[in-house]
């Protein structure tokens, strides 16, 4: 069987299995989606959002891009965040990076990768901001892994800086932003313990509270 036909065959076997487990599974999904979580992760094929946190279809709203970034002019990501926060009213946003991220690594290199160098540019700025800590790490893999952590922490802050998130907090909406890093080596997520639930940790210039 040609490879692509195999995917269609896999799909029909999956749908059949789901119906065997719960005859109303698809009917319930059609009726509504009420996920409590928005996942913002890397596009890397080794970090499948739903599987990593054991969630079924309908339980996780997902946005993925190269190196799990939240950029203030990225209407794709911000549209997802706005829909998740204002319409779905998710209670948690999970920013999930991963160790050994090729995007983060590429941002540390001087060779030209093409368009993606522009996309990854903000990670160079994170490196610059933390260059003393990073350059004290002699092992290159460890240095990239630390930059993966710092990138997640930065993206949690970037989310908190959006008008979307701050307006939700002002409405009294229960919304927490978490920063995690997933390890492909052992399948486990590490909580960076940088969860934010209000704008208190943001420098004044980033406040939208008038
Ligand atoms: Co990655």
From TrEMBL:
UniProt-annotated binding residues for Zn(2+): 42, 44, 98, 101
Record text on cofactor binding: Binds 1 zinc ion per subunit.
Family: Belongs to the beta-class carbonic anhydrase family.
Pfam family, one: Pro_CA
GO biological process: carbon utilization
Protein name stated in the entry: Carbonic anhydrase
InterPro entries for this protein: Carbonic_anhydrase, Carbonic_anhydrase_CS, Carbonic_anhydrase_sf
Cofactors, names only: Zn(2+)
Origin: domain of life: Bacteria
EC number(s) per entry: 4.2.1.1
Gene Ontology terms, MF aspect: carbonate dehydratase activity; zinc ion binding
Organism encoding this protein: Pseudidiomarina gelatinasegens
Keywords attached to this entry: Lyase, Metal-binding, Zinc
């Amino acid at each position: 069987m040609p490879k692509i036909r195999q995917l269609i065959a896999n799909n029909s076997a999956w749908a059949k299995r789901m119906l065997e487990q719960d005859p109303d599974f698809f009917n319930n999904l059609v009726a509504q989606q009420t996920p409590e979580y928005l996942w913002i992760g890397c596009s890397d094929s080794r970090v499948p959002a739903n599987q990593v946190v054991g969630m079924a279809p309908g339980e996780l709203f997902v946005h993925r891009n190269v190196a799990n970034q939240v950029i203030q002019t990225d209407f794709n990501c911000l549209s997802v965040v706005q829909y998740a926060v204002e319409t779905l009213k998710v209670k948690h946003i999970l920013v999930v990076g991963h160790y050994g991220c090729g995007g983060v690594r590429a941002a540390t290199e001087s060779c030209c990768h093409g368009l993606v160098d522009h996309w990854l540019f903000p990670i160079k700025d994170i490196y610059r901001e933390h260059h003393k800590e990073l350059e004290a790490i002699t092992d290159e893999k460890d240095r990239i892994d630390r930059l993966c952590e710092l990138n997640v922490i930065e993206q949690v802050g970037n989310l908190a800086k959006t008008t979307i998130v701050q307006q939700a907090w002002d409405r009294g909406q229960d919304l927490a932003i978490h920063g995690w890093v997933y390890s492909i080596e052992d399948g486990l997520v590490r909580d960076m313990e940088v969860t934010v639930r209000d704008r208190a940790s943001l420098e004044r210039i980033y406040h939208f509270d008038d």
